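ok, trying the design again with the full structure, not the truncated one.
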C-alpha cells in the first residue's frame, strides 16, 4: 500500500481508499495516480505523462487534462491551493504530498509496468476506445458533465427562481439568490452547469433545489424545496438580503454542514444582478444601464466591466468595446472570471476578423479554465480555438480542438456555434477534408427542441433566441418548422435589441431563402442589415450572400439586370483587400457559374480553374469537387468530352452526383460504352439520384448530343449552389 494523508492506494489493484471507504476511479485515472505516487516531489512534464500513459490517439491532450481534473476532484484537491497536485506553469505537474513508500521496490516496479501494459492495451484498442470511453463517461444521461459528482460529491441543479410576484423586475433577486446559493454550495455539491438545465430539468435522478417567490401582503414568501424537504421564508423586501436568505435556505434544508462564510455586501450588486436579469430576459440596452450603474458604485467590479465590454460590441460600438476590454485588470479576478474574460475578448476579436489574436485569447482561456475545473469553460475555450483555427485555415488543429470540445460536452457544444458553419458555399460545411465536419445534426435536433421548450417556460430570452436560431439551421428540421423558428428568433432579437444576434439571423435568413430559390425574399432580409465592415467575417459573408441572391434571381428567371448585379457584386468582392482566401475562392467559383449562364465560357473556365487551385491549396476537398465538375461541364458545352473524362479519371473515388453525371455524358459523347455504364451504375448507387438518371435517359434518346441539348436537359453546376434537390426536404 501507498499512504498519503487520509488516503491509501493499492497499486496492485489500482484501488483508492479514503479512510475505510473506496473512492471509485476510472482505470486511466488510477494509473495516473499510481504514476504520481511513484514519482513524488518530481516535476513531471505533460509529454512524459502522455508518453507513459497515452502513447497514441488524437485525444491524448484532452484525455490527460480531464484525467488530472478527475483525480483532483477524487482527492478534493484545489488547483489554486493544492494539497496533492501542483501545476507548474509551462513545465508540468508536481506531486507535493508526502507519500509513505512501501518497503518492496518491486511494488514500484509493478506500478510502472502496469501503466505501460495498460498503454499497450489501449493502443491495441485504438482511437475508437478512447472516444467511446471518454464520450460515454461524460455524455451518458443523466450523469453530469463533470465526474466530480460520481466520485465524491452529490449532484445538484438549481433552476431559475419562479417569479410569481407579477412584477418582472423582481426577477433580479432570483438571479442574486441563485448566485449566492451556488457560491456557498460549490464545495459540497457538483452544481450542474446552466447549459445542461434543459436536459436534466426533468430527470428524476438529479437533485433539484427549486425556488419560488410569491407576494404576501406587503412582503414576499420564498418557498424552497429539495426532494421531500420544503421550507418557507418571509422576505421583507427584495434588496441585499438575498445573501442572508440563501444561508437560511441552506441551513433549513440541511444542504451544508460546515460553517458558512458571510461575504460583505455592496449595494452595487443589486444593479449587477438586475443587469444579469435584463441581459437574459429583456435585452442588452437595458442591461447596459444596470451594469454601468453597478460600475459607478463598484469601480473595481470586474464582472460588471466584463459584461459592459461584451454588450458594447453586441450593440455595434466597437471602439468602446476595445477600451472596455483593455481597461479591465484581472489581478484580483477569480479563476472563472479570468476564463470568461479571455473567452469574451476572444469572441470579440474573432468577430472583428482578428483570428490570430482570438487564438491567443483562446489559449489563455484554456489555461485558466483548466485550473477552474469547470468543464463548460474548458469546452468553450476549445470551441473558440476551433473557430480561430477555422479562420486561419489550420484544419488539423481545428479538428483537434473540435474533438476536444465534443469529448467534454458532446453535441450540446455544437447546437449553436457549429450551426453557424452550416452555410454552404457562403461558409462551406466542411472546412478542410470532408470528414472534418463534426456537427451531428441528428443528435443536436432533439437537444435543441428540448432547450427551446425549457427556455420558453423560464423566460430566458437570450438563450431562447440562440436555441431557435440553431434549430432553424439544422438541415434535418423540415422547412415547415425551420422557417418559423428562424423568424421567431429574428422577432425576439429585434424586440430585445440583441443587435449582433439580429444581424446573424438576418444573414442566415438570406441564405435560407436562397436555398429555397427565393432570391427576392433573401434580398429583403439581407438589405435589412446595417453594413459594418469592421466586423470583417460577417460583412464579407453578407456581401457574398447578396451576390448569391442576385444570382439566384438571374438563374431562376433569366433576369439580365439581376445577372449583371450579381457579376458586379462578385467583382467588387474580388477587388477588396480584406477578403479572406476562402471567400475569394468561393466568389471565383460563383462568378464562374454566373458567367456560364451568361454564355461567357472562357472567363468562366479560367475562374473555376483558379478556384480549384485555391481549394487544393486550402485542402477544401468538398468545394474543390464543385470546381472540378464546373470545368467538366464547360468542356461538355465546348464539345470536348475527352478533357471532361480526363478530369474525372484523375479522381480516385468520384462520388459526387454531378461528377458522375457529367462523366456518363462525356463517355456517351466519346462512344466509351463501358465507361459510360460504369459511371451510370455508380450514379444509381447514390441516394436521390433518380432525377439525374432520368436526364441521362432523355439525353441518350437524342440522335446527336450537342451544346443545346446539354444545356436544356442536364443539370448545370450552379444547380447545386444550394442542396435543395438532393438533401433538403
Amino acid at each position: 500500500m501507498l499512504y498519503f494523508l487520509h488516503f491509501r492506494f493499492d497499486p496492485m489493484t489500482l484501488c483508492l481508499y479514503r479512510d475505510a471507504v473506496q473512492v471509485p476511479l476510472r482505470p486511466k485515472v488510477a494509473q495516473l495516480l499510481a504514476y504520481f505516487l511513484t514519482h513524488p516531489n518530481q516535476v513531471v512534464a505533460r509529454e512524459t505523462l502522455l508518453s507513459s500513459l497515452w502513447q497514441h490517439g488524437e485525444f491524448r491532450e484532452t484525455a490527460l487534462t480531464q484525467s488530472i481534473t478527475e483525480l483532483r476532484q477524487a482527492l478534493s484537491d484545489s488547483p489554486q491551493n493544492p494539497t496533492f497536485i501542483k501545476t507548474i506553469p509551462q513545465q508540468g505537474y508536481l506531486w507535493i504530498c508526502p507519500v509513505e513508500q512501501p518497503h518492496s521496490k518491486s511494488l514500484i516496479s509493478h506500478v510502472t509496468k502496469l501503466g505501460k501494459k495498460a498503454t499497450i492495451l489501449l493502443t491495441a484498442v485504438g482511437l475508437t476506445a478512447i472516444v467511446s470511453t471518454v464520450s460515454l463517461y461524460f455524455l451518458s444521461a443523466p450523469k453530469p458533465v463533470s465526474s466530480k459528482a460520481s466520485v465524491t460529491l452529490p449532484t445538484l441543479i438549481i433552476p431559475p427562481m419562479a417569479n410569481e410576484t407579477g412584477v418582472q423586475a423582481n426577477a433580479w433577486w432570483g438571479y442574486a439568490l441563485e448566485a449566492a446559493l451556488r457560491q456557498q454550495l460549490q464545495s459540497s455539491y457538483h452544481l450542474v452547469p446552466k447549459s445542461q438545465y434543459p436536459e436534466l430539468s426533468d430527470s428524476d435522478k438529479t437533485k433539484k433545489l427549486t425556488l419560488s417567490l410569491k407576494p404576501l401582503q406587503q412582503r414576499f414568501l420564498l418557498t424552497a424545496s429539495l426532494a421531500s424537504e420544503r421550507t418557507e421564508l418571509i422576505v421583507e423586501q427584495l434588496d441585499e438580503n438575498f445573501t442572508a436568505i440563501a444561508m437560511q435556505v441552506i441551513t433549513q434544508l440541511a444542504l451544508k454542514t460546515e460553517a458558512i462564510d458571510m461575504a460583505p455586501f455592496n449595494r452595487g450588486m443589486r444593479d449587477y444582478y438586475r443587469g444579469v436579469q435584463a441581459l437574459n430576459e429583456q435585452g442588452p440596452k437595458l442591461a447596459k444601464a444596470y451594469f454601468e450603474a453597478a460600475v459607478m458604485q463598484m469601480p473595481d467590479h470586474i464582472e460588471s466591466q466584463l459584461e459592459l465590454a461584451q454588450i458594447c460590441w453586441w450593440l455595434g460600438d466597437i471602439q468602446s468595446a476595445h477600451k472596455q476590454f483593455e481597461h479591465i485588470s484581472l489581478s484580483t479576478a477569480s479563476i472563472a472570471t479570468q476564463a470568461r474574460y479571455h473567452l469574451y475578448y476572444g469572441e470579440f476579436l474573432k468577430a472583428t476578423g482578428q483570428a490570430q489574436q482570438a487564438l491567443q485569447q483562446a489559449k489563455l482561456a484554456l489555461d485558466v479554465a483548466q485550473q477552474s475545473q469547470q468543464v463548460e469553460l474548458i469546452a468553450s475555450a476549445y470551441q473558440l480555438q476551433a473557430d480561430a483555427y477555422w479562420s486561419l485555415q489550420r484544419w488539423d488543429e481545428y479538428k483537434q480542438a473540435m474533438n476536444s470540445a465534443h469529448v467534454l460536452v458532446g453535441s450540446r457544444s455544437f447546437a449553436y456555434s457549429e450551426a453557424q458553419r452550416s452555410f454552404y458555399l457562403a461558409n462551406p460545411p466542411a472546412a478542410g477534408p470532408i470528414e472534418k465536419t463534426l456537427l451531428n445534426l441528428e443528435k443536436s435536433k432533439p437537444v435543441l427542441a428540448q432547450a427551446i421548450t425549457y427556455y420558453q417556460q423560464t423566460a430566458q430570452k437570450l438563450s431562447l433566441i440562440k436555441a431557435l436560431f440553431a434549430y432553424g439551421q439544422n438541415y434535418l428540421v423540415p422547412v415547415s418548422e425551420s422557417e418559423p423558428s428562424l423568424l421567431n428568433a429574428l422577432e425576439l432579437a429585434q424586440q430585445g435589441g440583441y443587435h449582433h444576434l439580429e444581424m446573424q439571423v438576418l444573414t442566415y435568413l438570406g441564405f435560407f431563402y436562397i436555398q429555397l430559390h427565393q432570391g427576392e425574399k433573401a434580398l429583403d432580409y439581407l438589405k435589412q442589415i446595417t453594413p459594418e465592415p469592421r466586423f470583417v467575417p460577417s460583412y464579407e459573408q453578407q456581401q457574398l450572400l447578396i451576390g448569391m441572391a442576385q444570382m439566384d434571381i438571374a438563374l431562376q428567371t433569366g433576369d439580365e439586370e439581376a445577372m449583371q448585379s450579381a457579376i458586379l457584386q462578385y467583382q467588387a468582392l474580388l477587388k477588396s483587400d480584406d477578403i479572406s482566401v476562402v471567400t475569394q475562392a468561393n466568389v471565383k467559383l460563383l462568378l464562374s457559374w454566373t458567367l456560364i449562364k451568361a454564355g461567357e465560357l472562357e472567363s468562366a473556365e479560367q475562374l473555376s480553374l483558379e478556384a480549384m487551385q485555391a481549394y487544393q491549396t486550402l485542402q477544401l476537398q468538398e468545394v474543390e469537387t464543385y470546381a472540378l465538375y464546373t470545368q467538366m461541364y464547360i468542356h461538355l458545352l465546348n464539345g470536348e468530352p475527352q478533357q471532361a473524362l480526363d478530369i474525372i479519371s484523375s479522381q480516385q473515388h468520384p462520388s459526387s452526383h454531378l461528377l458522375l453525371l457529367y462523366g456518363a455524358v462525356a463517355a456517351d459523347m466519346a462512344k466509351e460504352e463501358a465507361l459510360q455504364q460504369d459511371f451510370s451504375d455508380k450514379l444509381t448507387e447514390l441516394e436521390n439520384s433518380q432525377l439525374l438518371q432520368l436526364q441521362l435517359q432523355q439525353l441518350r434518346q437524342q440522335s446527336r448530343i450537342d451544346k443545346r441539348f446539354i444545356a436544356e436537359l442536364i443539370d448545370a453546376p450552379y444547380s447545386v449552389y444550394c442542396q435543395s434537390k438532393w438533401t433538403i426536404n
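Keeping the full-length input from now on. The longest strand covers residues 207-216.
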